[in-house]
Amino acid sequence: MNTKTQDAVRKDWDTYFMDIAYMVSTRSRCPRRHVGAVLVQGKKLLGTAYNGAPMGVQDCLEAGCMISEELEVKLVDGKEELVKKQRCIRTIHAEQNLLLFTDRADREGSTVYVTDQPCWTCANMLANSGIVEIVYHRAYPKDSDKVVRLMEQKGIVFRRLDPYEPPAGAHMEVTT
Known about the structure:
This protein is α/β, with parallel strands linked by helices. It is built from seven helices and seven strands; from the N terminus they run H-H-E-E-H-E-E-H-H-E-H-E-H-E.
Protein backbone atom coordinates (compact mmCIF):
# COMPACT_ATOMS: atom_id res chain seq x y z
CA MET A 1 0.00 0.00 0.00
CA ASN A 2 1.46 3.38 -0.91
CA THR A 3 1.56 6.42 1.40
CA LYS A 4 -1.31 8.23 -0.36
CA THR A 5 -3.57 5.20 0.02
CA GLN A 6 -2.63 4.83 3.70
CA ASP A 7 -3.38 8.51 4.40
CA ALA A 8 -6.76 8.24 2.63
CA VAL A 9 -7.93 5.51 5.07
CA ARG A 10 -6.13 6.80 8.16
CA LYS A 11 -8.49 8.43 10.68
CA ASP A 12 -7.99 12.03 11.75
CA TRP A 13 -7.20 12.61 15.45
CA ASP A 14 -10.72 13.76 16.40
CA THR A 15 -12.28 10.60 14.92
CA TYR A 16 -9.60 8.40 16.49
CA PHE A 17 -10.13 9.76 20.01
CA MET A 18 -13.93 9.83 19.70
CA ASP A 19 -13.85 6.20 18.54
CA ILE A 20 -11.93 5.38 21.72
CA ALA A 21 -14.52 7.26 23.83
CA TYR A 22 -17.29 5.20 22.22
CA MET A 23 -15.41 1.95 22.81
CA VAL A 24 -14.91 2.95 26.46
CA SER A 25 -18.68 3.61 26.71
CA THR A 26 -19.36 -0.07 26.00
CA ARG A 27 -18.22 -0.82 29.60
CA SER A 28 -21.23 1.11 30.96
CA ARG A 29 -24.11 -0.91 32.37
CA CYS A 30 -26.55 2.01 32.38
CA PRO A 31 -29.72 1.00 30.51
CA ARG A 32 -30.52 4.63 29.59
CA ARG A 33 -27.25 6.00 28.21
CA HIS A 34 -23.72 4.67 27.66
CA VAL A 35 -21.19 7.50 27.92
CA GLY A 36 -17.43 7.32 27.49
CA ALA A 37 -14.79 10.00 27.99
CA VAL A 38 -11.08 10.22 27.27
CA LEU A 39 -8.45 12.71 28.36
CA VAL A 40 -5.89 13.69 25.74
CA GLN A 41 -2.88 15.99 25.92
CA GLY A 42 -1.44 16.72 22.52
CA LYS A 43 -1.82 13.33 20.86
CA LYS A 44 -1.22 11.34 24.06
CA LEU A 45 -4.10 9.45 25.70
CA LEU A 46 -3.94 10.03 29.48
CA GLY A 47 -7.12 8.44 30.79
CA THR A 48 -10.49 6.89 30.04
CA ALA A 49 -13.76 6.59 31.96
CA TYR A 50 -17.40 5.62 31.54
CA ASN A 51 -20.62 6.18 33.48
CA GLY A 52 -21.65 3.74 36.17
CA ALA A 53 -22.36 3.09 39.83
CA PRO A 54 -19.52 3.42 42.33
CA MET A 55 -17.19 0.41 42.47
CA GLY A 56 -18.57 -2.41 44.61
CA VAL A 57 -22.15 -1.06 44.52
CA GLN A 58 -25.03 -2.56 42.57
CA ASP A 59 -25.53 -0.79 39.25
CA CYS A 60 -28.76 0.14 37.48
CA LEU A 61 -29.05 -3.24 35.73
CA GLU A 62 -28.88 -4.97 39.12
CA ALA A 63 -30.83 -2.55 41.32
CA GLY A 64 -32.76 -0.39 38.84
CA CYS A 65 -32.32 3.25 37.96
CA MET A 66 -32.58 5.77 40.78
CA ILE A 67 -34.48 8.55 39.03
CA SER A 68 -34.66 12.05 40.44
CA GLU A 69 -37.04 14.59 38.92
CA GLU A 70 -36.28 18.30 38.81
CA LEU A 71 -38.27 21.26 37.58
CA GLU A 72 -36.45 24.07 35.82
CA VAL A 73 -37.74 27.40 34.56
CA LYS A 74 -36.85 27.99 30.91
CA LEU A 75 -37.59 30.87 28.58
CA VAL A 76 -39.48 29.62 25.53
CA ASP A 77 -40.53 32.27 22.99
CA GLY A 78 -40.16 34.95 25.66
CA LYS A 79 -42.37 33.11 28.17
CA GLU A 80 -41.29 31.24 31.28
CA GLU A 81 -42.16 27.55 31.24
CA LEU A 82 -41.55 24.80 33.77
CA VAL A 83 -39.60 21.93 32.24
CA LYS A 84 -39.37 18.54 33.99
CA LYS A 85 -35.94 16.89 33.88
CA GLN A 86 -35.22 13.32 34.94
CA ARG A 87 -31.76 12.18 35.97
CA CYS A 88 -30.42 8.92 37.35
CA ILE A 89 -28.56 9.67 40.56
CA ARG A 90 -27.16 6.14 41.05
CA THR A 91 -24.63 6.72 38.30
CA ILE A 92 -21.35 8.61 38.38
CA HIS A 93 -21.03 10.32 35.00
CA ALA A 94 -18.14 9.48 32.67
CA GLU A 95 -16.71 12.99 32.97
CA GLN A 96 -16.82 12.80 36.77
CA ASN A 97 -15.05 9.42 36.77
CA LEU A 98 -12.46 10.83 34.36
CA LEU A 99 -11.72 13.65 36.81
CA LEU A 100 -11.62 11.23 39.75
CA PHE A 101 -9.09 8.93 38.07
CA THR A 102 -6.72 11.45 36.44
CA ASP A 103 -4.24 13.91 37.93
CA ARG A 104 -4.73 17.67 37.85
CA ALA A 105 -1.27 18.10 36.30
CA ASP A 106 -2.28 15.85 33.39
CA ARG A 107 -5.50 17.79 32.84
CA GLU A 108 -3.81 21.20 32.53
CA GLY A 109 -4.07 22.22 28.86
CA SER A 110 -5.73 18.94 27.84
CA THR A 111 -8.75 18.00 25.74
CA VAL A 112 -11.67 15.81 26.81
CA TYR A 113 -13.42 13.74 24.15
CA VAL A 114 -16.82 12.59 25.36
CA THR A 115 -19.56 10.71 23.54
CA ASP A 116 -22.27 13.06 24.87
CA GLN A 117 -22.42 16.77 25.53
CA PRO A 118 -21.77 17.22 29.26
CA CYS A 119 -24.66 17.96 31.61
CA TRP A 120 -24.57 21.09 33.75
CA THR A 121 -22.87 19.42 36.73
CA CYS A 122 -20.17 17.80 34.59
CA ALA A 123 -19.64 21.03 32.65
CA ASN A 124 -19.07 22.88 35.94
CA MET A 125 -16.55 20.29 37.05
CA LEU A 126 -14.75 20.27 33.69
CA ALA A 127 -14.66 24.09 33.68
CA ASN A 128 -12.64 23.96 36.89
CA SER A 129 -10.41 21.02 35.91
CA GLY A 130 -7.69 22.72 33.84
CA ILE A 131 -8.83 21.39 30.46
CA VAL A 132 -8.92 23.76 27.49
CA GLU A 133 -11.20 21.89 25.07
CA ILE A 134 -14.22 19.58 25.09
CA VAL A 135 -15.18 17.64 21.97
CA TYR A 136 -18.48 15.74 22.05
CA HIS A 137 -20.70 13.87 19.59
CA ARG A 138 -24.29 13.51 20.80
CA ALA A 139 -26.19 16.60 21.90
CA TYR A 140 -27.71 16.82 25.38
CA PRO A 141 -30.44 19.43 24.92
CA LYS A 142 -31.57 19.50 28.59
CA ASP A 143 -28.60 21.66 29.63
CA SER A 144 -27.17 22.79 26.30
CA ASP A 145 -27.74 26.55 26.47
CA LYS A 146 -26.33 26.90 30.00
CA VAL A 147 -23.33 24.72 29.20
CA VAL A 148 -22.49 26.64 26.02
CA ARG A 149 -22.60 29.95 27.94
CA LEU A 150 -20.38 28.54 30.69
CA MET A 151 -17.77 27.32 28.20
CA GLU A 152 -17.76 30.71 26.47
CA GLN A 153 -17.26 32.45 29.82
CA LYS A 154 -14.38 30.12 30.71
CA GLY A 155 -12.77 30.35 27.26
CA ILE A 156 -12.93 26.57 26.83
CA VAL A 157 -13.20 25.40 23.22
CA PHE A 158 -16.49 23.49 23.06
CA ARG A 159 -17.37 21.74 19.85
CA ARG A 160 -19.54 19.02 18.47
CA LEU A 161 -17.90 16.45 16.22
CA ASP A 162 -20.30 16.33 13.30
CA PRO A 163 -20.37 14.55 10.95
CA TYR A 164 -19.18 11.52 12.85
CA GLU A 165 -20.15 7.83 12.83
CA PRO A 166 -19.37 5.73 15.95
CA PRO A 167 -17.55 2.42 15.51
CA ALA A 168 -19.72 -0.62 14.77
CA GLY A 169 -21.09 -2.18 17.93
CA ALA A 170 -20.25 0.80 20.14
CA HIS A 171 -23.30 2.98 19.54
CA MET A 172 -26.35 2.87 21.83
CA GLU A 173 -29.69 4.46 21.07
CA VAL A 174 -30.26 6.98 23.84
CA THR A 175 -33.30 6.92 26.09
CA THR A 176 -34.37 10.46 26.95
